[in-house]
Write a structure and sequence with these properties.
two-stranded antiparallel sheet, 14 helices, mainly alpha, ABC transporter involved in vitamin B12 uptake, BtuC
Length: 336
């Protein structure tokens, strides 16, 4: 049976339908849910998760996994706080160092995956423990960031005031970083050779190598990008909290993976998009917002609903694979 649309687009359309349904439910059930202030808070509160999920999208599209995301983010936040408050570095210099460390760590993981031919799960699991431990080595407790450049320039001067709603809303720099990250990632995946190679590796790494594509080099770059974006998420977290915390972002790597899967990216790689990931992040954020508006539910319901959605999307992916296989067998049997 031939589908009226490309099967690759079905998970993304399903994600969009879920997002519309969740938002419509909240708007109909709760007063002030459909407001500019709620939309603004949705982006602000999930900016660091969204950036981390972009890195996870590249990794999963290639058929890999990165479990070190949350630990790298926590490490970055406490590294920034210590460099700024205790070492006395300018925040921009500290941010540059933190991003470079994140990219370097990701590239090391990518090289180890290629060198030892071990599953990415094992390498990045080791990375999770290593970076979490290093975060506590740098400083065992949270450190506040009171530098004037952070408080005044980054968190005030670069904030945009929009005349929306009755009182207007402010869009902080963290939201612009989030949106810019998604826009650049979309362009890279859709319009560059690197992006096309990422899809090819996820679809069939052996075939990609036979085609002459730089599989090994691209794999290292994918994990370097994931490390860089995890560090960038740590920067955004520091700006959001105005502090660094070695215990922060526990389990965030799982939230990022959930957002990617809910966004329609196959865990086996080859199919997906950052557009779907963006919608997946919004869905997770809306679920948390609904719980806040309800007022009498535990925050653990976010995990319960997210887990249910992940299972449903995995079932959808399996059904589409089965349908595609059935169509292929029918086509082969019909050919002379």
């Amino acid at each position: 049976m031939k589908l009226p649309i490309d099967r690759r687009d079905i998970p993304l359309l399903a994600t969009a339908a879920v997002l519309v349904a969740v938002y419509a439910f909240g708007a109909l059930r709760y007063d002030n849910f459909a407001s500019w202030a709620v939309a603004r808070n949705l982006l602000v509160d999930n900016a660091f998760l969204g950036i981390a999920a972009v890195g996870a999208t590249f990794v999963i599209l290639s058929g890999g996994i990165d479990l070190s995301v949350g630990s790298v983010m926590a490490f970055t936040s406490i590294l920034l706080a210590v460099l700024i408050e205790e070492v006395g570095l300018h925040p921009l210099a500290a941010i540059g160092i933190a991003l470079a460390v994140g990219a370097f760590f990701g590239s090391v993981q990518g090289m180890m995956i290629r060198l030892f031919r071990l599953p990415p799960f094992l390498i990045t699991l080791a990375g999770l423990f290593f970076m979490r431990g290093m975060a506590f080595v740098i400083h065992p407790q949270s450190v506040g960031v009171n530098h004037a450049f952070v408080a005044t320039t980054l968190n005030h001067t670069l904030t945009l005031q929009l005349d929306l709603g009755r009182r207007g809303i402010t869009i902080p720099v963290t939201v612009w970083i989030l949106l810019a990250t998604f826009l650049v990632a979309w362009f890279v995946l859709r319009h560059t050779r690197f992006g096309r190679t990422v899809y090819a590796i996820g679809d069939d790494a052996h075939a990609a190598a036979l085609m002459g594509l730089p599989v090994a080099r691209t794999t290292v770059r994918i994990y370097a990008l994931s490390g860089f974006l995890s560090a960038l998420a740590g920067v955004v977290f520091m700006l959001y909290k105005q502090s660094g915390d070695p215990a922060a972002a526990r389990g965030l790597e799982l939230d990022a993976i959930a957002a990617v899967v809910i966004g329609g990216t196959l865990l086996t790689g080859g199919i997906g998009s950052v557009v779907g990931t963006f919608l997946g992040v919004l869905i997770l954020g809306l679920i948390q917002t609904l719980i806040v508006f309800q007022g009498n539910l535990s925050s653990w319901w976010t995990s319960i609903v997210a887990g249910t959605l992940v299972l449903l999307f995995l079932a959808l992916q399996r059904a589409l694979d089965a349908l595609a296989g059935s169509a292929l067998r029918t086509s082969e049997s019909a050919s002379p």
